[in-house]
Design a protein that fits this description.
The longest helix is centred in the middle third of the chain and has 17 residues. The radius of gyration is 18 Å and the shape is globular. It is built from eleven helices and nine strands.
């Protein structure tokens, strides 16, 4: 987790600069209790400001119905709910069992469907899908079961997350094939961490399985306070570079992302930054591709 509390306007500037670099879908905040994670004490202000940014398609993370209701009240276009496949991690993260979290998601779907106005997209994230630092192995059958139930309940997108960086390419390829088969036409995304250096290898494996959407963060920032030892997300700059080299058109400008990253480094002194492209630079042979859309 980033320790430095950024001012609201700086967070919104982050959104503007990200959009200017060609990335439009941005998870801008989390509707969690501010006393637990003070960084999100301005969730309403950030969400409201992000909605007003031209070209920005903001989403927000929520841990429960109360958080979802806060996001719904603002008209956030996409709301992402998260629960854990690991029972112990779910208890540590939201103080309820995984089954209770599934029941809560059903209430969120009902609340979404009852509101008037533009339909809000509901994403459902499955944390610790590839293993847990608290309880160890997580059965793939359990992940597939949860994904199937979330899809049946009304999730518009399933997000499979390697919260603690335990996943490896063979495991990722196999599990993602199973999840995609189980949820039918519901889109599936992946959320990887590079804790053990396999983040981008796992992206490639997920691509092989048919996944076409990935979470990433500038400079690999982020993390979970209930995932001991885990580092931040896969690096946005490196992920875009990989996808472009594989022939996908991400629409993102790697050079603009790296330039903005340099500025962010001055905003967050003492934080851990990762990323090979920022360190080594783009090769002279690099060209963005436009042969396939991610």
């Amino acid at each position: 987790m980033v320790r430095t509390i950024l001012p609201t306007e700086r967070k919104l500037d982050w959104c503007r600069r990200t959009v200017a670099a060609g990335i439009h879908e941005i998870e801008v905040t989390s509707f969690v209790p501010p006393k637990l994670i003070p960084q999100f004490g301005d969730a309403e202000e950030v969400a409201r400001g992000a909605i007003a940014i031209a070209g920005c398609r903001p989403s927000a993370l929520v841990p429960n119905l109360r958080g979802a209701e806060r996001a719904f009240a603002l008209g956030v276009p996409q709301v992402n709910y998260v629960l854990s496949a690991s029972e112990q991690h779910n208890l540590a993260n939201v103080r309820r069992t995984t089954e209770q979290s599934l029941e809560d998601f059903a209430r969120i779907v009902a609340a979404r469907d009852q509101r008037v106005g533009a339909r809000i997209v509901l994403g459902a994230g499955i944390a610790t899908a590839f293993g847990c630092t608290i309880s160890g192995a997580v059965a793939s059958s359990r992940v597939v079961e949860i994904a199937s139930r979330l899809a049946e309940m009304g999730a518009d997108e399933i997000i499979v997350a390697d919260t603690v960086g335990y996943g490896h390419p063979r495991q990722v390829r196999g599990l993602m094939q199973e999840v995609i088969a189980a949820v039918g036409r519901v889109p599936v995304a992946c959320h990887f961490h590079d804790t053990r250096g396999l983040g981008l290898a796992n992206v490639a494996a997920a691509l092989d399985a048919g996944v076409r959407a990935f979470d990433a963060s500038l400079a690999g920032l982020g993390g979970c306070p209930f995932a001991p030892g885990a580092t931040g997300n896969i690096d946005t700059e490196d992920t875009v570079f990989l996808l472009e080299q594989l022939g996908f058109d991400t629409g993102a400008d790697v050079e603009a992302l790296v330039a903005f990253r340099r500025e962010v480094e001055s905003w967050l002194p003492g934080e851990r930054f990762s990323g090979a492209i920022a360190r080594a630079g783009l090769p002279k042979t690099y060209r963005a591709h436009t042969t396939a859309a991610v």
